[in-house]
Each structure stands twice: as C-alpha cells, then as structure tokens.
Amino acid sequence: AVTPEYAAANVVSVVSGLLSVTAGIVAILASRNLSRAALHWALLSVSLLNCLLSTACCVGLALAIALTVHTRGMHLVRGCDSSALPADARAAIATNDCPFNTTRIYDTALALWVPSMVLAAAEAVLSGRSCLVALVFRGIGPCARSYGKEQV
Fold this sequence. Notes:
This protein has a domain at 1-76. It is built from 4 helices and no strands. It has helices at residues 4-32, 37-70, 105-138, 142-147. The radius of gyration is 21 Å and the shape is elongated.
C-alpha cells in the first residue's frame, strides 16, 4: 500500500527529469540554430512547462519529506500489517509480514528525497532562465531590446 502523496511525488519527479532532458536538448538545438523561430518557441514552451513541473516536483518532495518526518516513517511501512513493528519506523525490523526490509527505508528515503528536491529546485531555476533566453531570442520582454540577440 503506497500513499498517494508518495506516488504523486515519484511520478512528477520522473516526468520532471525526462522533461528537463528534453528542455536541454531543445536548448542545445536552439543555440546552434539561432535563425529558426520554431526552435525558439519550442524552447519557450518546453522551458516554461519544465519550470512549472520542476516547481511542483520540489513542492511534492517537500511534502513527502514533511509527511515522513512527521509520522516518523510509519507511512513508508504502511503495507506491513505486522504488530511486531514498533512505533518508530527507524527501529523497525524485517518480518515475514512485510515484503521488504524495513530497517533502512526511513534513512534511505530521506537521503534520496533531499538531494532530489535540491536538484528539482535547480531545474526550475535553470528552466526559468531558458524561458527568458527564449523570450530574448524572439525579441519579447524588457531585456530583449537592451541586451540584444547578438550578445546572447
């Protein structure tokens, strides 16, 4: 039994990562072909979508971390219906009623989620910057006139 918060955070995280790769490829293509307007619009749309999705991923991971810390990891071992599990998931032991080893799931989940949240925040910032660059390429926005496409 997986709580919907963890499932949603995991799905958004995976989709955000895939979209970040796509945004990076489009940014490389747009930087090599400065005269193609279609690539500028593609960069703008993919970067904007990735910025929003990476922000949602960061918020979802923060929610997952907060729920895990607040419940002391008991939502992580929710699928185990054993009365042998203690109140703290960090002290839980592997039992036959649990399909996985519960001894390190709390620390491992937090050790993976915290760097993922930091990287999702970095993805959001870099996608926002790519979005601004796409706007400058198209001559839209306040900095497009003064900065110029040639300098980008």
